[in-house]
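look at this one:
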Amino acid sequence: MNDKITNWTASDDAMVENAIRRGASRRELLTMLLAGGVAASAGGMILGRATNAAAATPKSGGHLKAAGWSASTADTLDPAKASLSTDYVRCCALYNRLTFLDKAGTVQMELAESIKSGDAKVWTVKLRSGVTFHDGKSLTSKDVVFSLKRHLDPAVGSKVNAIAKQMTDFKDIDPLTVEITLASPNADLPTILSQHHFMIVQDGTTDFSKGIGTGAFKMETFQPGVKSIFSKNPNYFKAGGAHVDSFEFFAISDDNARVNALLSGDIHLAASIKPRTMKLVESQPGFALSQTTSGNYTDLNIRLDLAPGDKADFVAGMKYLVNRQQIQKSALRGLAEIANDQPISPASIYHNADLKPKAYDPDKAKFHFQKAGLVVSRSRSSRLKRPPRPLKWPRSCSSRVPISA
């Protein structure tokens, strides 16, 4: 067995670090390393290095400059209207939600201390005490009621109006207690409230240009489509607070320009590094890449109400005919996870890991096509009958490769 590492990169380090943060056991991590062709002793060394990196204590202080990939003069600090990635970054710095999803996809409490219901229709929300807004005002139930009711007002233009409509009544029982009544029972309300748009703003807010929230940072400068500058909130309710004293956030839309700005030291953090430039960044000392699963997917859409999709064996054959590994390796440059014919991301707590994807097998595909009556023999060769409508790959970005039908 060769203990020398010959094919390990910074992105692999990031993969192991992310697995550690998700709570993977040492056995699971070593299994993952061995499956990747890394020897046991070398795997232990990598695991130790990644564990140390994940456990390192961040240093406080300094000013951070970060660049996203999109900006617009329509940029907003109103969480109800947020739509661009840059909107979400700013809102997450300025505000908090009642709940949030951790890296395992599990609901955790944030501004709420607890959310309980006996029938999944009437919910009681207990708020944390001692939480203050950037202007010093204490968080109360009135702020929560105001924030949630805004989504029902057509004049606000909330991006989650359709979801919020199930909330039919709100009551501020006392300064730290809110009662939410739904049109019908929904056990997923704590998950729904974790969405970015349901961030809590101050009661009566109409001017969102100041970004007054309860978040880890305070708004210093906001120029839509240009830049935003934030300073650390010294009264943040979470232990430890922010690690940097301030940060500047803006967009560099050109991919190459964004990477060049990172490599030249003009910025400290760049979002959305494309696969073709990842190796360039990895090859430079002092830079690290962080990869996360987006949950997006690319699928092969088949109409089950039209021929040949109305034949179960045609659908089964297509699942064997698509070479998912080749798509993952070549088309997506390894930045993908092969899924299992379902749109549920492996990052979701509802993902069924026991449901395995079909392996690439043209012979099995042919077998099913024959059963569907779509393959006609001509001496020693076979051909597939032309379907009445062409099958097209949808135009979408992907981090996984399921084939759904």
About this structure: Residues 1-5, 39-50, 390-405 have pLDDT under 50 and may be disordered. The domain at 59-251 is CATH 3.40.190.10 (D-Maltodextrin-Binding Protein; domain 2).
